[in-house]
Structures are given as structure tokens and as C-alpha cells.
Amino acid sequence: MDYFRRTKIASILSQPDEAGEDVLVMGWVRNRRDSPNLTFLEINDGSCLGNLQIVIDEPSKFPDLENIKLGAAARIVGRLMPVPDRKHKIELHPTEIKLVGESSAEYPLQKKRHSFEYLREIAHLRPRTNTFGVMNRFRSRISYAIHKFFQDRGFYYIHSPIITATDAEGAGEQFWVTAFDLKNVPVTDGEIDFDKDFFGDQTFLTVSGQLEAEIMACALGDVYTFAPTFRAENSNTSRHVSEFWMIEPEMAFCDLDENMQLAGEFLMYLFNYALNECSDEMEFFNSRIDKRRVATLEKLAKSKFEIITYTEAVDILKKAKKKFEYPVEWGVNLQAEHERYLCEEHLKAPVMVKDYPRDVKAFYMRLNDDGKTTAAVDVLVPEIGEIIGGSQREERLDILKDQVKHFGIPEDGLWWYYDLRRYGTVPHSGFGLGFARLLMYMSGMANIRDVIPFPRTPKNVKF
Ligand code: 4AD
Ligand code: MG
Which one of 45, 119, 132, 438 is most buried, counting C-beta atoms within 10 A? Predict the structure, then answer.
């Protein structure tokens, strides 16, 4: 198939001085224009945003050309020629044109602007549009940057399990995993008999890889996960999905303040990486998605995170002139509207809020000396609100046990988690960054469904 012989369009467009060379390209037709003795094809092979223009002087010499319609796949051999005064300084004059895969007049991506809503319905074709091509290449680059940040600092990439018997966040928003025949579930004394299920226990899709990351941090020191996580919460918002990739570093011998410092450095690294190493994508987002995107990221990359406690946040919100849908009192969880007020209107900066009331956060968070708050942190950015959630973990066995009792969590599955506190326990901390929320913020995309190739949301699991 000439896979190894072909030249990628990204390499042709980035080296316009290669004019004069003969190349073989393969890709899909993005545009076709015909005049009596001249045909232009624009070919995109997915390697970059740009198309390669194919200029055909004598269309009748190429029998396959007639069937090469919008969306068709083609293999073209020819000579690269310079075009000095155009955006793409190079075009291809073919000697061979072969139809690889035909298309038809029903091709759903005709040459016009399609709404994001329409494109979600054809998620199998939307990666072929400019916007979603850029988005998917950007996802790949930022994934690489995430690995690079941690690997350069001596963190080890670990793989936490997807199927789990525990509820890491204790919020009960988990999808069940079962091999039971749902029409005939074994019941003993009115209760589902999970002993008879595949794993001999009740199992779920994980909401977080953190508990296993703690095991690994207490052996390897600094680790991180970058993996899918699942939430069965029924929230149909522009910021929630049921399946998303999370990055969760976990560090031994690290307290909350050090954890927050790392979270800040991590975000700044990623913002700078996007601006410096993905300037083509950022320029595209800036011109097509949000005109202020580059300026916003540049400003953020230079700013410092404000750090306030939850108690201070509540004071600010209670004094605010703004009317909130959810009223604020000490002890309630902060809603997106509160988070956005704090960073967009009051502090006008990204914010870290720490020391939340113990009852609004998870059981594993370290109890502060006041006995009322835990060493939790949420990192909030304008437009999105919470982008990172993290904490110092409770490393003291007796207090952890009190917490488990306080939250009414079944203890039997936690023996190994307790063991980490029995044998060589150390202060340790970590956080979770939602990858999709990060991409929304960087690209300016308003809906999380447009930064994930195949989003899973309530009542939607197509593709
Ligand atoms: O705050 P969360 O629930 O924290 C944890 O799961 C911890 N175990 C992390 C840790 O300390 N290792 O989730 C972390 C982040 C959120 O800040 C948000 O960015 C993202 O995950 N997130 C979601 N993203 C998209 N859709 C959802 N339904 C999300 N829920 C959380
Ligand atoms: Mg959270």
C-alpha cells in the first residue's frame, strides 16, 4: 500500500523548500473545484490542519478523477511546485491519481459550516473537520506534555485498575460491574448475593485511581496515573461527563502546601506548553473558538494563584452583592456559581481554596487540628470553576478509622488501605486534574462534549 513510501502533508507544508521533489501522498478530499481544463483538489491526510493543493492541468488524462468526490480517499503521485505568493507555498502537480475509497453526494460533511450540535450526531466523521482535527491533535500533544512534566521530575506512571470493589470518593456515584444475568439475579434473605457474582464481591467502574496510587506512592515515592474514570452522577451540564480521563499524581512525604505548589507548577507548565509548543492549535482556537483565548492563557500563565481557606471564601461570598441560586452558609459545598464568582469577579485570578468542612469532602482527607475541616484543596479557574481537586491524605490510622465510621463507609474492603497506615505510614498528598476540563479551558470550547472524541453523558452512548 506504499505506507512507508508516502510523505505526510504536515512534512510537505512545513518544508516548502522541498519544491521540485517527487512525492506520494494519501488522504481525503476536502475540496474540489473544476473549470473546463483545470481541476483543483485539496487533500488532507490528518497529519495537520493544512490541505495540500493538487493542481491538475489536463483532467482528461486521469480516468479515476471523475469519481473523486468530496470525502473520497485518494493516492496521488506527483511533483511539488513552489507557489511563492500564497499561504501554502507549495502545491502538487500529479502524474498519477488513484481512487482508494469512493464517497458520494450524501457525504454528511458538505462544504459549509456545521453546528457543534450537528457534528456531535456524526462523531464518527467529525474528526475530519478542521476544528475536531485540531482538537484531537491538541489532546495528543497535551497528553504528551502531561507525561513529560511528571517524567522529567522523576515520577513513575502507574496503572490503577478500572474495575474496583471500593468507592474511592465515597459519593456513591458509581456504575456497577456485574456478570449476573440481570433477569435472574441471585438473592439471599432479600439481599443481592454478590458472593455469586463474577468477582465474588460487588464491583464498580472506578471513580478515581487514587487509592491504588497511594499504595504505589508508599512504595515508589512519586507516581501518577492518567486513566479513564467514571461517574454515574446524573448531571447534564456543559462541564460533566460520565467517562473522563483524570491525571492523579500522588507523592509520599508531601503535605498540603507542597501539593498545592506542585498543582500550580503543573498547570503553569501545561499553559506554557500549549502557548509555546502548540502555537498552531492555539492560533486556531483563538481565531475560530474564542478571540480572547491566547490572551487569557497568557495572562493566566503569568499570574499567581490566590490561596484562601474555605472559611474565607464563605465570608467573601456572604458579603457579595450578587444573588446566588444556591445560598451560602459555612458547611455547604461550593457550587460552580460560587467558584466562578471567586475567581472571575472577586479575586480576578485563579484560586486555590483549602481546608473545606470535613463533611463536604471525602473520608480519606487529613483531619485538620480544628477537628472541623480537612486538608482539601480545589483549584478554581475562571469560566470553568473547579479544574483540580486534591488533598493531603489521613496517614494516622486511628483518625482514619474515625473518619470511616463518621462517613458510615463499610470497613471490610479497606484492610489494605489501613495496612498502609500500619506499616511505614508517611504524610502523603495528591490531586486529580480532569483532562477534559483542562482542554475546555485551554481551547475555549464551551461544551465538554466537544473536547472528548466520544463523550458519554446521560442517555448518550453513541459510537
Ligand atoms: O474532585 P474529584 O472528584 O477528585 C478525585 O477524584 C480525587 N480522587 C483526586 C485526587 O485527589 N487524586 O475529581 C478531580 C477532577 C475535578 O476537579 C474535575 O476537573 C474532574 O476531575 N471531574 C470531572 N470532569 C468531567 N466530568 C465529571 N463528571 C467530573 N467530575 C470530576
Ligand atoms: Mg472535586
Answer: 438
Is 404 part of a structural domain of the chain?
yes
Residue 382, all three cell numbers:
475562571
Distance 47 CA to ligand 2 centre (A): 36
Instruction: In whole angstroms, give the CA distance from residue 88 to residue 84.
Output: 8
3-class DSSP state of 62: coil
The sign of the dihedral angle between the CA atoms of 301, 303, 309, 312 is negative
Q: Ligand 1 centre from 459 Cα, in Å?
A: 21
**47, 75, 107 - which closes a domain:** 107
Let me know whether 252 and 150 are in one domain.
Answer: yes
Using the atom order of ligand 1, give the atom closest to the CA of residue 246: 21
- What are the φ/ψ torsions at residue 76 (nearest 5 degrees)? -130, 130
Q: Does residue 115 lie within any of the structural domains? A: no
Q: Is the CB–ligand 1 distance for residue 208 below 6 Å?
A: yes
Question: Looking at the domain assignment, is residue 323 inside a domain?
Answer: yes
Tell me, in angstroms, the distance from the centre of ligand 2 to residue 366's CA. Answer: 15
Q: Whose CA is nearest to atom 18 of ligand 1?
A: 434
Task: Judge contact between 208 and 433, C-beta under 8 A.
Answer: no
**Ligand 1 center to 206 CA (angstroms):** 12
Cell 456572604 locates to 318
Determine whether the shortest distance from the Cβ of 430 to ligand 1 is under 6 A: yes
Q: Which ligand is nearest to the CA of 434?
A: 1
436 lines ligand 1 (CB under 6 A): yes
Name the amino acid, one letter, at 280. D
Q: How many CB atoms lie within 10 A of CB 287?
A: 11
Indicate whether 176 and 73 sit together in one domain. Answer: no
50 alpha carbon – ligand 2 mean position (Å): 39
Same domain? 146 vs 61: no
Measure CA of the first residue to CA of the last residue in the chain; give whole Å. 28
What is the domain range of residue 82? 9-107
Dist. CA 455–CA 158, nearest whole Å:
25
Q: Which atom of ligand 1 is nearest to 387's Cα? A: 19
Residue 240, domain member (yes or no):
yes
CATH code of the domain covering residue 55: 2.40.50.140
Please work out whether the CB of residue 212 comes within 6 Å of at least one atom of ligand 1: no
**pLDDT of the chain, 463 residues: tens digit per residue:** 899 999 999 999 998 777 789 999 999 999 999 998 999 999 999 999 999 999 999 999 999 999 999 999 999 999 999 987 777 789 999 999 999 999 999 999 998 889 999 999 999 999 999 999 999 999 999 999 999 999 999 999 999 999 999 887 877 799 999 999 999 999 999 999 999 999 999 999 999 999 999 999 999 999 999 999 999 998 889 999 999 999 999 999 999 999 999 999 999 999 999 999 999 999 999 999 999 999 999 999 988 899 999 999 999 999 999 999 999 999 999 999 999 999 999 998 899 999 999 999 999 999 999 999 999 999 999 988 999 999 999 999 999 999 999 999 989 889 999 999 999 999 999 999 999 999 999 999 999 999 999 999 999 999 9
